């Protein structure tokens, strides 16, 4: 790694640290009593629950709130919360028999609604309540950080002591449709939180102009990571193997660590097909899906940035003066590859999926401050996606 590339890499990710998060793609129950079921709900079902919950608990408030509460037995299967309680009894091994044998399985629910970059603060669930906590995820992906807390007295002050502690940590990704349960040891001896955008091992941990270029590159290439081949594209970095979207992040970080300035528009606008193919090489013979299309995207956006914005997406961002809508409109105007517009019965329909994800990622990385402050961030819509 040359000195300039070394500076670029550490501007994005800082120095290596023993307390970097361990991200588990395939959960292997490292904490007794923690059980996760994947894809219990379809995207359509998640959307229905999400709509009902937001309408029921968050529509009649004049100020921004992110938590609603329900008290009372959740036993009526004709209500959404009652159906969720019923689902818990159908998932084998989700909860122990001692919990399932209760006459009323659950008698309260907490509904959390977080913007991208927000999350639950570090805590241990209140000890005075009975065993068994179940969570359903209906919105965007989140990362749950879990740390063991052996001393029951210390659990009461866990959040306050966290900054001076460096406990071993396990992280688990939760996607829409997933269900997790904590009982026994996981219920009473583990502190947890949902981490913000910068807490993931692969995303920039330092919010600066270099992070802006990283985000733009990754979001420009954030499409279609699946193929019809029986063996899917994967990238291993620092001993961990990634699939799907995370392969892209891992490949970009691998290139930066090797001294390749892949986030520099001047580089990827003119790099050869062979050089770019090597950047996105997989662990085996499978290459990243749609490699040719991705190379075309890099050439397109690279030329625009070099010709009009001194090679920096951060210069384009500055033109938007803190407006998310201006940024979306400028991105889809300047870059054809972001302009996902279609015709439906003769009428134009604009999705602008990646353009809006780009805004949301910048906002989350900077926690709504500085380069990531958008006065109209609430105008960004729910992103269309596929699964």
Secondary structure: number of strands: 13
Strand content: 15-25%
- Percent in helix: 25-40%
Average pLDDT, rounded to a whole number, is: 81
What's the alpha carbon Rg, rounded to whole Å?
Answer: 22 Å
Largest sheet: 4 strands, mixed
Uncertain stretches of 5 or more adjacent residues: 16-29, 151-167
**Can you count the helices?**
15
| H-E order | HEEHEHHEEEHHEEHEHEEHHHHHHEEH
Q: Which strands sit side by side, in order, in the main sheet?
A: 1-7-6-9
Q: What class would the helix/strand composition place it in?
A: alpha+beta
Which overall shape is indicated by the principal axes computed on the Cα atoms? globular
- State the separation between the terminal residues, measured CA to CA: 37 Å
Give a short overview.
It is built from 15 helices and 13 strands. By secondary structure, it is an alpha+beta fold. About 8% of the residues have low confidence.
């Amino acid at each position: 790694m040359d000195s300039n590339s070394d500076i670029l890499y550490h501007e994005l990710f800082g120095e290596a640290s023993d307390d970097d998060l361990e991200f588990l793609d395939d959960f292997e129950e490292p904490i007794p009593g923690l059980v996760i079921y994947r894809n219990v709900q379809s995207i359509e079902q998640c959307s229905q629950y999400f709509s009902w919950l937001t309408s029921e608990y968050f529509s009649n408030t004049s100020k921004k709130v992110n938590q609603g509460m329900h008290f009372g037995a959740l036993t009526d299967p004709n209500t959404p919360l009652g159906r969720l309680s019923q689902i818990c009894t159908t998932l084998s091994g989700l909860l122990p028999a001692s919990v399932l044998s209760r006459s009323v399985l659950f008698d309260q629910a907490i509904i959390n609604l977080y913007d991208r970059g927000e999350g639950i603060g570090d805590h241990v669930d209140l000890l005075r309540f009975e065993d068994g906590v179940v969570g359903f995820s209906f919105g965007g992906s989140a990362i749950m950080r879990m740390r063991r807390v052996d001393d029951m007295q210390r659990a009461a002050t866990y959040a306050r002591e966290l900054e001076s502690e460096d406990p071993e940590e396990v992280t688990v990704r939760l996607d829409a449709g997933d269900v997790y349960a904590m009982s026994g040891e996981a219920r009473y001896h583990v502190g947890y939180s949902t981490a913000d955008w910068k807490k993931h091992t692969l995303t920039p941990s330092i919010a600066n102009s270099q992070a802006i270029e990283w985000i733009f590159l990754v979001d420009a290439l954030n499409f279609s990571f699946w193929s019809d081949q029986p063996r899917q594209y994967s990238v291993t970095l620092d001993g961990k193997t990634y699939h799907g979207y995370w392969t892209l992040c891992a490949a970009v970080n691998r290139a930066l660590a090797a001294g390749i300035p892949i986030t520099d528009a001047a580089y990827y606008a003119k790099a050869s097909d062979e050089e770019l193919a090597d950047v996105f090489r997989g662990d085996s013979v499978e290459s990243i899906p749609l490699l040719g299309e991705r190379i075309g995207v890099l050439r397109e956006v690279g030329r625009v940035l070099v010709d009009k914005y001194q090679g920096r997406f951060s210069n384009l961002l500055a033109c938007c003066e803190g407006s998310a809508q201006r940024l979306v409109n400028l991105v889809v105007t300047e870059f054809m590859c972001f302009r996902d517009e279609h015709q439906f019965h003769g009428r134009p329909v604009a999705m602008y999926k990646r353009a809006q994800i780009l805004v949301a990622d910048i906002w989350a990385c900077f926690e709504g401050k500085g380069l990531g402050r958008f006065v109209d961030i609430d105008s960004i819509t729910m992103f269309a996606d596929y699964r």
